[in-house]
Please model this.
Amino acid sequence: MTKKGVLLFCFDTPDFKYHKILEKCVLLIKRNLKLEVTVVTNFETYKHIKPLGFVNYKFIEPELGNKKYGLEWRNVDRHMAYELSPYDVTLVMDIDYFPFTDNLKQFLDTKYDFLVSKNVHDLTNRNSFDTRKYSMIDMVWATVFVFRKGKKAKRIFDMIKYVKQYYSYFMDLYRVVDRRFRNDYAFAIALEQANGMITYDTLPITLPTLPPDCRVLEINDEGITWQYNDQVNFTKNQDVHVLNKEVANV
Amino acid sequence: MDIGELKRQSDLSYDISVAKRNALEKAHARLLVVYNEHIFRADAETINLVKTLSEVHPSPFYVLDTNDNPVEIAEPKLFLKTLIERNQEAISSYHQMSKTFGKRVD
Model:
């Protein structure tokens, strides 16, 4: 029987208690996706995580050095998802992607070896994620992706590792403006290279995303209420990717 | 109408516009359905295609998934039922949400 599950990466930093975001995410996965969960973390983070029922933990020491807005950003280890996943088919999600629906679950039942989305929807309707002009390559959103273990997926992850190793070269090659290490670009470049510089199969979802300047006011079982300037709005029974890390304190 | 009332109406229109756009995105997300290990969009185009093919072409027939890969449809009735159920689930949810937009204006 094919083993399916969700793989999450979570490392606290001196600035943000990511484990608090993880706790919210895992509860929603259990409630809505009803899949087994494996969390890749380090012991320093693990000891702060409250009991979440049955969850597998894998311990690694995160690679340091990447920064975002001058703050430590522990996002570099995603390339190890293939080796770290105990599942035949794995859904990898950012912990700030809150699954308020079961929409993602069905994508573990396809024949595809590797699926990632290229599209994002700004929930404030400002279209603030139009990244196409910032590089020569169409970026993917490594926020959510699905892979099935096998030769093809392994080849893609090997390529991701190669891109990561020579990241600055590939940033120059594809004229990427953002010089920080971003999984989104590493995955996009690896997919293009591994697929012979032509198009590749994608996950046809549009990630509903709340920009970082939105303050989350409330999270409940069904959705999120947020504030942007003097506007308050909400989602109900809709997945949400929250970029403001203060959501940890809501 | 004073300027304060105009601003209130403008803010309300903005809120409704954002909520409507997000509700539509929610419906689009729900329209995606996996059948026979492939991903389809349970929209009007897919439903019409499958219904037409099931009426005028012997099964199995072949359609393209969201990645333009061909898929054999051996059980058209079951596929059509799946598409219609998902379509109406998504659109009726959007309809429920859209009714609240009208209430906000009232």
Observations:
- The radius of gyration of chain A is 17 Å.
